[in-house]
Automatic annotation (TrEMBL):
NCBIfam families: YicC/YloC family endoribonuclease. This is TIGR00255 family protein. One of its GO terms (molecular function) is hydrolase activity. Residues 172-288 form the Endoribonuclease YicC-like C-terminal domain. Belongs to the YicC/YloC family. Its cofactor is a divalent metal cation. It comes from Marinobacter daqiaonensis. Keywords: Endonuclease, Hydrolase, Nuclease. InterPro entries: YicC-like_C (IPR013551), YicC-like_N (IPR013527), YicC/YloC-like (IPR005229). Pfam families: YicC-like_C (PF08340), YicC-like_N (PF03755). The keyword Iron does not apply.
Length: 288
């Protein structure tokens, strides 16, 4: 399964306490790296979220954000500390009896005193349960998006691999005739220079040339690595790192083929191979 590391997913849920939204963005990264932005009420769930994320995603930089929009009913649950107000009232009356001209203290002055107004303790367990379920749904949606994006790249890989196979076969077909052409070119140079040709020396030169220009192993390895790429694309686990390694191996063989080339056409084919490999390598960088 081909999975892209670039994806976005958003889910939200609504209840009597308000609207809770979860968003997850991922981009390509060498390892799995996650950053969370959570409301204070959900802060203790972060470790659980990280563990679930680690089990689901293999690689990528993930940005996870929760946003809680409370309802008016949830925001106005305020209580008055009656015991503290009674104590304050007694202290105020005592001071007023002592002062000659006491200032009037109204209710708002009392409400501003620290601890007089109290927000009622809310039961956050329903919110936490909903947040946990919402994160799971958003993560599932994210995985589906990553898989869709990754599968869109499959035709690109298959097209490049098919073209590479054709180019490798072209080189393989040309190699037997190249040595004969080189021998004829060498003979022609000797004839032009009117120099007597030593058959034994010519045979030695041709053997050395054949050894230097032998690319059979490189062609075999190009075919083998291409077949391994095809097989890797069919796996269900994370394949990005393995494909990245195979792209390096393919590029190494294409470079060797180019350096051993004794023919302009073979050199052109080697350049075309490197272009195709680089196109695949750029896409591999974004795969999980």
């Amino acid at each position: 399964m081909i999975r892209s590391m670039t994806a976005f997913a958003r889910q939200e849920t609504q209840a009597e306490w308000g609207v809770l939204t979860c968003e997850i963005r991922t981009v390509n990264h060498r390892y799995l790296e996650a950053s969370f932005r959570l409301p204070e009420a959900l802060r203790e769930l972060e470790n659980g979220f990280r563990e679930e994320l680690r089990k689901t995603l293999g690689r990528g930089k993930a940005d996870i954000g929760f946003r809680l929009q409370g309802t008016e009913a949830a925001d106005t649950s305020i209580a008055v500390n009656d015991a503290l107000v009674a104590s304050l009232n007694g202290a105020i009356n005592q001071i007023n009896r002592t002062l000659d001209n006491p200032a009037h203290i109204n209710a708002l002055d009392v409400l501003r005193w620290p601890g007089v107004m109290e927000r009622e303790e809310q039961d956050l367990s329903p919110l936490k349960a909903v947040a946990d379920e919402l994160f799971g749904r958003t993560l599932e949606d994210l995985v589906r998006v990553r898989e869709r994006e990754g599968e869109r790249l499959r035709p690109l890989f298959e097209d490049r691999l098919d073209t590479m196979t054709t180019l490798v076969e072209q080189v393989r077909d040309r190699m037997p005739g190249l040595l004969k052409a080189q021998e004829e070119t060498l003979r022609e140079r000797f004839r032009t220079a009117k120099v007597e040709l030593d058959p034994e020396r010519l045979s030695q030169e041709m053997v050395m040339l054949a050894q230097k220009s032998d690319v059979a192993e490189e062609l075999d390895r190009l075919e083998a690595h291409g077949a391994e790429v095809r097989e890797t694309l069919q796996r269900n686990d994370a394949i990005g790192r393995r494909l990245d390694f195979l792209m390096q191996e393919l590029n190494r063989e294409a470079n060797t083929l180019s350096s051993k080339s004794i023919d302009a056409e073979v050199t052109r084919i080697a350049v075309d191979l490197k272009v195709l490999i680089e196109q695949m390598r750029e896409q591999v960088q974004n795969l999980e």
